[in-house]
Amino acid sequence: MSLTVEIFLVRADGNIDIQPTPEGVPDLAGPESRRTKVWGSRAIRSLGARYSPALVVGDLVAPEEIPAFLAECALVKENLDHLATLTCSPDRTVEVLIW
């Protein structure tokens, strides 16, 4: 199973409609194991990340939280080398796409 990024709409009745991913936009955020090994790690929490660690137990970023989430994505992107050193085994290469 893979960890993916989905666009969703919350309907008036509270149900969620998953929207199609725009063509040419990647939706993969890594294998399922990244929830705990990377996104929920002590290393990412040390950056002050709030949304990434929440992926361990949940999946949603509310529409009004998107600007703060994007700022956190930029913070993660700035610290990729540091995070990879702390969270990945030395014999593996990690590539993370953050738009």
- Average pLDDT over all residues: 80
Strand order within the widest beta sheet: 1-4
Order of helices and strands: EEEEHHHHH
The structural class is alpha+beta
CA-atom Rg in angstroms? 14 Å
* Count of individual beta strands: 4
Describe the structure.
The chain is an alpha+beta fold and 99 residues long. The protein has one domain (2-87). 36% of the residues lie in helices and 15% in strands. The chain has five helices and four strands, in the order ββββααααα. The strands form two sheets. A two-stranded antiparallel sheet has the order 1-4. A two-stranded antiparallel sheet has the order 2-3. Strand 2 and strand 3 form a beta hairpin. It is globular, with a radius of gyration of 14 Å. The mean pLDDT is 80.
List the SSEs and their pairings.
Blueprint: E1 2-4, E2 7-10, E3 16-19, E4 28-31, H1 34-39, H2 42-46, H3 51-54, H4 66-78, H5 80-87
Short note summarizing the structure:
The chain is an alpha+beta fold. The protein has helices at residues 34-39, 42-46, 51-54, 66-78, 80-87; strands at residues 2-4, 7-10, 16-19, 28-31.
